[in-house]
Amino acid sequence: MLIRKLFKFENAHIVRGCSTRRCSHSVHGHSYKVELLLEAHALDRGQMVYDFGLLKRGARDLIDAFDHAVTLWSEDDPAYVAAMQQHSERWIVLPVSPSAEQFSRVIFRLVDAVLAQTDMANGEADVGLHSVIVHETETGYAQCFREDVENPYMGTIDLRDITFSAAISREWGDPDLFERLKLGKLRAPASHESISDAAIT
């Protein structure tokens, strides 16, 4: 069974090397929609695949980090990267170009790491991230599956090569969230107590 949770954020980028000059030579933004599709073949004690409220613990903060931020490619012109970091307090540096395709791979890597470090405590069974869909426009999206994240022909995504600005990490419920995630020390417990999905924006 699959379940889906939708997130939204506003983000700016340049996609170097793409065919459209406006996209490859000018900073521009999109209203992104991100769909997380979780999969399991059994239900927990609440007869759910996974309580959406549990995504508040880490996954939501990491996706929200991209909101009102500029996303930069570490291999872009150093002067451009430095200028954007100087003039925007919310920025993220990725080891891959910030296309919709790469956003879907990066977000898959981030959320998958959170799930892998979550202690399931309500009878959840074999819950996994099936895929991530990133809508860049109303008519276009990219969908990433696990094999895409591991595909070396699409570029390597190591959590250690992702940097969030200090202004972003200060807003997290746990400012050390990403550092602990990279070290494999997140171990967020899944609660027996349901967290209302209505509280998630």
UniProtKB/TrEMBL annotation:
<dbReference type="GO" id="GO:0070497">
    <property type="term" value="F:6-carboxytetrahydropterin synthase activity"/>
</dbReference>
<keyword id="KW-0862">Zinc</keyword>
<dbReference type="GO" id="GO:0046872">
    <property type="term" value="F:metal ion binding"/>
</dbReference>
<keyword id="KW-0479">Metal-binding</keyword>
<comment type="pathway">
    <text>Purine metabolism; 7-cyano-7-deazaguanine biosynthesis.</text>
</comment>
<dbReference type="InterPro" id="IPR007115">
    <property type="entry name" value="6-PTP_synth/QueD"/>
</dbReference>
<keyword id="KW-0456">Lyase</keyword>
<dbReference type="Pfam" id="PF01242">
    <property type="entry name" value="PTPS"/>
</dbReference>
<dbReference type="InterPro" id="IPR038418">
    <property type="entry name" value="6-PTP_synth/QueD_sf"/>
</dbReference>
<comment type="similarity">
    <text>Belongs to the PTPS family. QueD subfamily.</text>
</comment>
<protein>
    <recommendedName>
        <fullName>6-carboxy-5,6,7,8-tetrahydropterin synthase</fullName>
        <ecNumber>4.1.2.50</ecNumber>
    </recommendedName>
</protein>
